[in-house]
């Protein structure tokens, strides 16, 4: 069942990514020969309004084959008003960006429904107070519920950390204990910590850890829009930073996951709840959007880079340069895919 869920999720996201390219291409009058979900031999095919819509045997991606644009033939040139070749660079950039944009949009839509259906968070309930910490000295105790810091209402455990990090000076904590509201003044201290990328940082803290208690927050439609925007932006930033840290060597290459890891995450989510499936689908969608925007030839970001060069230099890259860079891009992508699969197998059998 988990494998089926994974294939459905992946096909769903690939379909909307390619639909973004397709709709932008048709808007600018570019003929689309093929719209494919999957690669290799056709499993299903139907010609509709000049485009062959197909499902292929290997369901690990997809593509839109436009007139005048084919990644398997980097030097392809086809004339005519309905050719990708003849469109202005800015129009080609929009066509290319439309795929990743569709992924960001789908993620936002999914986060909207998650917000409406109930988003899960760690409760702002204290599970442990570290000895001799500011919180300990102020008298905070296990099972205290933090409801407000200064004038800011606290709804989740994340709210506590975000407020403390961005604050200055002493803080007034309002906690609920035994049905009573108690105020405690705490002066945070700066201590060593690690961020999500396991980098050593300095951080304002008070010395408390969360209780293993999950709460569900239901948002109104207007609130859900804000939640969807925040989560999409937050996820995008996290993935962009992750790529940056990987390039810098902060994150080891052994952390790269492949299709097996993604499948396992989706499978585990499917055994948890429908909301969990929506959440991981949204995150994978953002991941696809971000990774496709990387300036690697053969990806959308690489093609956007070529078109930006054409806009600035007033000329296209030479056919030879374009071909070799595209082939290099394919080599990079193939290497990353193989590395991801190798790491996945290592995690299973290592």
Kindly list the characteristics that best describe this protein:
350 residues, alpha+beta, Pdz3 Domain, 2 domains, 9 helices, elongated
Q: Can you offer a commentary on this structure?
A:
By secondary structure, the protein is of the alpha+beta class. The protein folds into two domains: 2-118 and 238-349, no CATH class; 120-217, PDZ domain (Pdz3 Domain, Roll), CATH 2.30.42.10. The protein is built from nine helices and twelve strands. Strand 5 and strand 6 form a beta hairpin. Helix 1 crosses helix 2, helix 2 packs antiparallel against helix 7 (274-292) and helix 2 (89-117) packs antiparallel against helix 8 (300-313). The radius of gyration is 25 Å and the shape is elongated. The mean pLDDT is 89.
Tell me briefly what this model is.
With 350 residues, the chain is α+β, with helices and mostly antiparallel strands. Helix content is 50%, strand content 23%.
């Amino acid at each position: 069942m988990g494998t089926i869920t994974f294939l459905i999720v992946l096909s769903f996201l690939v379909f909307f990514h390619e639909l973004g390219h397709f709709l932008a291409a048709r808007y600018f009058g570019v003929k689309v020969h093929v719209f494919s979900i999957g690669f290799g031999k056709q499993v299903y095919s139907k010609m509709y309004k000049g485009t062959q819509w197909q499902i292929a045997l290997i369901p690990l991606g997809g593509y839109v084959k436009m007139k005048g644009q084919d990644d398997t033939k980097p030097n392809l040139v086809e004339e005519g008003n309905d050719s990708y070749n003849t469109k202005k660079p800015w129009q080609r950039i929009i066509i290319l960006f439309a795929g990743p944009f569709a992924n960001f949009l789908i993620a936002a839509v999914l986060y909207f429904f998650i917000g409406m259906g109930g988003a899960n968070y760690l409760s702002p309930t204290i599970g442990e107070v570290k000895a001799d910490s500011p919180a300990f000295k102020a008298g905070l105790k296990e099972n205290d519920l933090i409801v407000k810091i200064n004038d800011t209402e606290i709804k989740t455990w994340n709210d506590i950390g975000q407020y403390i990090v961005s604050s200055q000076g002493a803080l007034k904590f309002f906690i609920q204990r035994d049905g009573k509201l108690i105020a405690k003044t705490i002066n945070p201290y700066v201590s060593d910590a690690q961020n999500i990328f396991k980098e050593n940082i300095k951080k304002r803290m008070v010395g408390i850890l969360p209780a293993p208690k999950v709460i569900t927050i239901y948002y109104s439609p207007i609130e859900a829009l804000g939640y969807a925007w925040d989560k999409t932006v937050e996820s995008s930033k996290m993935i962009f930073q992750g790529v940056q840290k990987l390039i810098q060597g902060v994150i080891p290459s052994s952390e790269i996951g492949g299709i097996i890891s993604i499948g396992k995450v989706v499978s585990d989510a499917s055994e948890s709840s429908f909301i969990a499936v929506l959440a991981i689908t949204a995150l994978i969608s953002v991941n696809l959007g971000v990774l496709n925007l990387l300036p690697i030839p053969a990806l959308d970001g690489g093609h956007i880079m070529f078109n930006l060069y054409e806009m600035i230099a007033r000329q296209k890259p030479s056919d030879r340069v374009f071909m070799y860079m595209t082939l290099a891009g394919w080599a990079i992508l193939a290497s990353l895919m193989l590395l991801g699969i190798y790491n996945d197998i290592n995690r299973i059998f290592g």
